[in-house]
Amino acid sequence: MFLYLLLFPSLATSLLTTTTTTQCRSFCGTIPINYPFGIDDGCGAIQLRHTLNCTSPDLFFLTPSGSYKVQHIDYLKSTLTIYDPSMSTCSILQPHHDFLMTDIQTAVIPPSSDTVFALLNCSVDSPVLNHYRSLCFNVSSHSCDELYASCNAFRVFRLLTNSTPPCCFTGYDTVRYMSMNILDCSHYTTVVDADGMRGVSPLDWVYGIKLSYGLPDRGCDRCSASGGTCGFDTETEGMLCLCSGSSNGTRQCGEISMLCHYH
């Protein structure tokens, strides 16, 4: 086989490269788009295909429950922070809804451990106040009473019941496995950076959802060092190193050394 490829180098080239018209945009507005993300089909990691949508100048993270505006991507810390425009915050009360992600998204880019989901105005029969009460945890000594007293949007809960309705500070897995209807809480909000909430009023919390991504190293650094952009074949879904011009390598640009796509 090796001798055959030496005698017919054009065949070797065709085996090692592929022709594509994919152009990977590197920015959406002011947000840089680097691996593992991509806003053009065939760019980035296959696991995150169709996850981002660029409606310039805004970048959105897409899940089964909606489109969430991306506020920041930190490539050094491997985090992406999004904001849910339909989420209740200290200043506005929104109709309740669920935050849903696909199984693949949950596996490769779930909410970070320091993102807190605060379930509000819960019934005394809520499972997180009974059988699953261990799912609620203390967050820098903040209380339901403080939350309802500090936030104009949440004061209505006390006015309606003439008391302080239960609430629950919890993590993503709770809302992943139990919908808001099952949780029997009327609203929720999410706060980024649990450690940064210590001694800070709910008025000054950073509302949003921080996602933490992790993907196996499949040689993207090698591709980037050769001047290419990591992507994938839109038909076979095998990994490609997208190079300038019309020929793309399987691992890097400008070198014919590998005979197979990544799988």
Automatic annotation (TrEMBL):
<dbReference type="GO" id="GO:0030247">
    <property type="term" value="F:polysaccharide binding"/>
</dbReference>
<dbReference type="GO" id="GO:0004674">
    <property type="term" value="F:protein serine/threonine kinase activity"/>
</dbReference>
<dbReference type="Pfam" id="PF13947">
    <property type="entry name" value="GUB_WAK_bind"/>
</dbReference>
<feature type="signal peptide">
    <location>
        <begin position="1"/>
        <end position="17"/>
    </location>
</feature>
<keyword id="KW-0732">Signal</keyword>
<dbReference type="InterPro" id="IPR032872">
    <property type="entry name" value="WAK_assoc_C"/>
</dbReference>
<dbReference type="Pfam" id="PF14380">
    <property type="entry name" value="WAK_assoc"/>
</dbReference>
<feature type="domain" description="Wall-associated receptor kinase galacturonan-binding">
    <location>
        <begin position="24"/>
        <end position="84"/>
    </location>
</feature>
<dbReference type="GO" id="GO:0016020">
    <property type="term" value="C:membrane"/>
</dbReference>
<keyword id="KW-0325">Glycoprotein</keyword>
<dbReference type="InterPro" id="IPR025287">
    <property type="entry name" value="WAK_GUB"/>
</dbReference>
<feature type="domain" description="Wall-associated receptor kinase C-terminal">
    <location>
        <begin position="208"/>
        <end position="245"/>
    </location>
</feature>
<protein>
    <recommendedName>
        <fullName>non-specific serine/threonine protein kinase</fullName>
        <ecNumber>2.7.11.1</ecNumber>
    </recommendedName>
</protein>
